[in-house]
Design brief:
The protein has 175 residues and is an alpha+beta fold. The chain contains six helices and seven strands; from the N terminus they run E-H-H-H-E-E-E-H-E-H-E-E-H. It has one domain: Gcn5-related N-acetyltransferase (GNAT) (Aminopeptidase, 3-Layer(aba) Sandwich). The protein has helices at residues 12-17, 22-29, 39-47, 98-111, 128-136, 165-172, and strands at 3-6, 54-60, 67-76, 81-89, 118-124, 140-151, 154-164. The site of coenzyme A has 19 residues, from helix 2, strand 4, helix 4 and helix 5.
Length: 175
């Protein structure tokens, strides 16, 4: 239902079009990028993708060839761990299972060809849809960093979730 291909500079315009405001940008990437999200910021990000420290992908539906999402995996080779991030499904494609399918492929790559032992992620603790998606894939909350930052007039807490290789192989079956 979904295939991944490497993220490249020519995808930056498409990616930027999926982010429609500062709150969406914040939900997607925290304070890494600043609003307005211009192609210059994304070009820098694209340049560090597909390197030994980061693998980023665009997800597409092979039946239509439409790009439907984006995901990235930051790799810490020293401890065989990865950090999943920049998870985004095109607004018009949400709620159709693309998020779960895209992350399944990314996790397969992380635990498979990249040989990782553990994959972590951080998600704002009020992002119920994303948390449900991650829990469905087997991620469990490790701890919550409470009130770590102020943005848009409120205090934000970041849930840290972990998926060990053993849980992926046993529970998700590397589907
Ligand atoms: C979070 C996000 C990636 C989910 O992608 P998606 O393609 O809509 O998710 P899926 O259709 O694969 O659904 C996965 C799970 O989440 C649930 N879910 C997703 N969107 C939902 C919604 N709008 N309402 C209720 N549940 C929702 C689904 O029910 C499903 O759970 P289930 O298998 O138990 O039924 C997408 O909403 C998104 O891009 N959000 C903006 C960016 C963001 O918040 N990224 C996360 C940063 S940490």
């Amino acid at each position: 239902m979904v295939e991944l291909r490497d993220f490249r500079t020519s995808d930056c315009r498409q990616l930027a079009a999926w982010i429609d405001g500062p709150l969406e940008l914040w939900n997607w990437s925290g304070h890494h990028f600043s609003w307005p999200l211009d192609e210059g910021q994304l070009a820098e990000y694209a340049a560090e993708s597909s390197t030994p420290v980061r693998q980023s992908w665009m997800a597409f539906d092979p039946t239509t060839d439409h790009v439907v999402g984006h995901v990235s995996l930051r790799i810490e080779a020293a401890n065989a761990s990865g950090r999943l991030g920049r998870v985004l499904v095109a607004p018009e494609a949400r709620g159709k299972g693309y998020g779960a399918a895209m992350l399944t492929k990314a996790l397969d790559a992380g635990f498979g060809e990249l040989g990782l032992e553990q994959i972590e992620l951080g998600v704002w603790d009020d992002n119920a849809h994303a948390i449900r998606l991650y829990e469905g894939l087997g991620f469990a909350c490790d701890h919550v960093l409470r009130d770590v930052v102020q943005f848009a007039g409120k205090s934000w807490s970041a849930m840290q979730m972990i998926l060990p290789r053993s849980a992926w192989a046993v529970d998700a079956g590397s589907a």
